[in-house]
Amino acid sequence: MAFTCKRPAASLDGHASQPGAMCRKRRRVVVGTTYDYDQESRLGAGKFGAVVKARCRATGQLVAIKSLHDPADPHEVLREARFLEACGGHPHIVGFRGVTLDYVTDELCLVMDYVEGKSLKLLLSERGGGLPEATVCTFMWQLLTAAKKMHRCHIVHRDINPANILVGGEVVKICDFGVAMSMSEAPPYEEEVGMGEYRAPEMLLGKEDYDALVDTWSLGCVMAEMLSGKRIFRADEFISLFQRIFQVGYPACLNAPDPSIRSAFGTVSCMLTLQVYLISEQVQTNA
């Protein structure tokens, strides 16, 4: 399928409006036309948008094109584009190529690097269990360096979960900055963002001035899931989810057959339990 465009190419100013909002200097984000790409297949779809695999006509390179569902808010597209651009060049964050126009909807789309592989969610589902500890260590190091890059750029992802982590061989990349925010923005912040099972307690409690630690919490949940193959806080209801959080690490870490996994679970448990304690203390103090 060939994309075409109704309007000529334009350009967009990709700099942040507030000091410290992004770590890069002012530069241009090229806005191309979807006529330059041939769609090959759909990679995935979610609540807010869809991603397709496409090939650049000029270079033959594969890309991933993300479009938002109707009607797409151009400000939201450009906001995500700026976050991706700010993190550009990091080996464990999906690469950003620019913004393009969809010929059917005449709306903006994001053009990103195509990652040959699958999501961490699909990988764990296909395995039916956890990953080897060495693999988990490798993946976690990569994810933590990606988080460090985001946070240095004053960006909080807010939706880190296995579905938003792409696995290509021995390399993982964080993707989908659709609900990310800049730490230069003043609170109150939205708490109803991201997947519930990976959301930090402060977000679940409706705390409106949380920070980058919400990503740390999500990464801890992802690490536990990579080790066990199961969501550590799976629950259908809000109250049940909180009960699971305050019982963190038990009995899963005690029943794990591999001593090294029990040890790793213990580390995750301590990290998450400390964060729960600090949040609960802060909530009680502010009450």
Automatic annotation (TrEMBL):
Instruction: Note the InterPro entries from the entry.
Output: CDK, Kinase-like_dom_sf, Prot_kinase_dom, Protein_kinase_ATP_BS
What is a single molecular function from GO for this protein? ATP binding
What top-level class of enzyme does the UniProt entry assign?
Answer: transferase
**GO cellular component entries:** nucleus
| The keyword ATP-binding appears for this protein | yes
Q: Please give the Gene3D superfamilies that the UniProt record associates with this protein.
A: Transferase(Phosphotransferase) domain 1 (1.10.510.10)
The catalytic activity, as recorded, is: [DNA-directed RNA polymerase] + ATP = phospho-[DNA-directed RNA polymerase] + ADP + H(+)
Q: What domain of life does the UniProt record list for this protein's source?
A: Eukaryota
Give the PROSITE patterns listed for this entry. Answer: PROTEIN_KINASE_ATP (PS00107), PROTEIN_KINASE_DOM (PS50011)
**Is ATP-binding among this UniProt entry's keywords?**
yes
Q: Which residues form the Protein kinase domain?
A: 37-287
Q: What processes in GO biological process is this protein linked to? A: regulation of mitotic cell cycle
Under Enzyme Commission nomenclature, its number is 2.7.11.23
Q: Which UniProt keywords are listed?
A: ATP-binding, Nucleotide-binding, Phosphoprotein
Protein name (Swiss-Prot/TrEMBL): [RNA-polymerase]-subunit kinase
Source organism (scientific name): Aegilops tauschii (Tausch's goatgrass)
